[in-house]
Specification:
Rv1873-like_sf, 10 helices, Serine Threonine Protein Phosphatase 5, Tetratricopeptide repeat, single chain, DUF1810, DUF1810 domain-containing protein, about 140 residues, mainly alpha
């Protein structure tokens, strides 16, 4: 049983698709629907029920996600796979509006943790500018 029930929904959603997600990211093009639970953003930013369901509550929740023995490494591995395509834009990799969701996710986890990959993604794909809406909600 998961000791962190607020994270169980992410594990359940990722388990059957994570290999395919990594294959898509390594190929440099997102084709299927998994953005909400692989690159989560603040729940307050969600417009759909799915986005709210997979939303992260706050910085502490994001820190628990990063510290999780499966979810944290998975987020980092997926982020590194995107970073490998620095010659492409986030829009070319994710399409719209998922390129905006990726920026929100990178902003959230950059603020929550000490992993340089999130800041690198913001620098590479967004000119170093964090998502102002995410920053505003957390302020």
């Amino acid at each position: 049983m998961d000791a962190q029930p607020d994270l169980a929904r992410f594990l359940t959603a990722q388990a059957p698709v994570i290999d395919g997600v990594l294959a898509e990211l390594q190929a440099g093009y997102k084709e299927s629907h998994w953005m909400w639970f692989v690159f989560p953003q603040l729940g307050a930013l969600g417009r759909s029920a799915t986005a709210r369901f997979y939303g992260i509550e706050d910085l502490e929740h994001a820190r628990r996600y990063l510290a999780h023995p499966v979810l944290g490494p998975s987020l980092l591995e997926c982020t590194r796979a995107v970073l490998a395509h620095g010659d492409r834009s986030a829009h070319a990799i994710f399409g719209s509006p998922d390129d905006l969701k990726f920026r929100s996710c990178m902003t959230l986890f950059d603020l929550a943790g000490s992993h340089p990959e999130f800041r690198q993604a913001l620098e590479r794909f967004y000119g170093g500018e964090p998502d102002p809406v995410t920053v505003g909600v957390l302020a």
